[in-house]
UniProtKB/TrEMBL annotation:
PANTHER family: BIFUNCTIONAL ALBAFLAVENONE MONOOXYGENASE_TERPENE SYNTHASE, CYTOCHROME P450 FAMILY 4
Needed cofactors: heme
SUPFAM superfamilies in the cross-refs: Cytochrome P450
Biological classification of the source: Eukaryota, Metazoa, Ecdysozoa, Arthropoda, Hexapoda
Keywords: Heme, Iron, Metal-binding, Monooxygenase, Oxidoreductase
Protein's recorded name: Cytochrome P450
Keyword Cytoplasm: no
UniProt GO MF annotations: heme binding; iron ion binding; monooxygenase activity; oxidoreductase activity, acting on paired donors, with incorporation or reduction of molecular oxygen
Annotated source species: Polypedilum vanderplanki (Sleeping chironomid midge)
Family as reported in the entry's similarity comment: Belongs to the cytochrome P450 family.
Amino acid sequence: MCKIPDIKDQIPLLGIAHKFLNVELKDYIKIMFEVFDVNIPIQKTWFALKLAIVPNTPEQFKTIFTSPYCINKPTVIYDGFFSKYGIISTNGEVQDKHRKILSNSMTPTILNQLNPIFNEKIKNFVKKISEKVEKSEFNIYNYVAACTLEALMKGQFQHDHDCYGSEVIEAFENSKEIMMRRIVQPWMSFKPFFNISKLAKDAKKVFNPIHKKVNEIINVNQHLKIHKDQKVGVLISQLLNFKNEFSEEEIRDEIFIWIFGGYETTALTLSTCLLMLAMHKKVQQKVIEEIENSKFDERFDITNEETQNFPYIESVLKETMRLFPVAPIILRETTAEIELEGHKIPKDTILVLPIYLVQRNKDIWGDDAENFNPERFEDKKNQ
Ligand code: HEM
């Protein structure tokens, strides 16, 4: 263990937490990746008094993602999502139960049923954008985010909400800073510190419109009744029809984390993809040609099956997610000793997987690893 090199600029037990003091949210990721050395396959540091290991190769990622001892998420960090019982942050039996019931809301059949909603929301988005283009500068992320949030609210929660300029979307956007601050300042993971902090007060204020919205979603859908044999439905019906399985807090936490995890990820990916298209005119032209050569027309009524007919657009999306992964770091915690790169990693160690670095590693992707080049995904070996 002691042979594993330390990441640079860290202090014992606190790791690199000191580097985030008085830093803006937009600089967090830059700071994190400055301390990792891309050329070292495995490094160590500390987080909230716990040992943390940073594996930096796809082989180690594979070992971790397939190990039964690396399933848990480190609660000291995932508590920062303010969703104790949500599927993304919870562990053990609660997570197993939630996965079993809730994965039924994402089956291909359910997603196909949601297509008319996606199409309707995209038409509305195009209408809103058309009123803006070629007039003055505007931030397209706000429009994409409103579109993905509306689609999610209507699709998985049967809830109509105009998200363009709504205080709910503003609250979700502000909550990102609160979440990140709680995560990168490990002392905030100790409840007594957090509870008396300014961050806790800010969190209460920021999350208020979201909690109100979650209550409204539950109240509006209270009457849901599923047929006895019907084991699948959109998320809200799964949550409310299997009410005996979930506590009230579990239901609230799930609604919160699915909305957040569902709209923000897609909005960031899609708006970054639009930015890449604007910056790479040749790629943009190929995308336009693929659309023009397909049967898809301006009605925007596309089925799940038809989405398979756009291989180039698929490569463009993959390349966007390679260079700009919405989860640039993923974390796990060991529940037994494991072996990585010939080192024995003890139980209760935090594993910090730097997805962003591996997806830009020149040894894996070639010398043009930093370039936006969707064509690389046309090569079978990269698919
Ligand atoms: C571009 C879009 C998306 C990206 C890049 C993305 C990325 C991810 C990543 C990296 C994780 C693993 C997080 C971790 O283990 O720490 C994850 C988990 C999850 N995501 Fe997404 N996501 C996207 C869209 C969505 C959408 C639209 C939904 C729901 C409507 C969703 C729901 C979930 C759920 C429920 C989990 C937890 C799964 C489990 O642990 O069983 N995601 N996502």
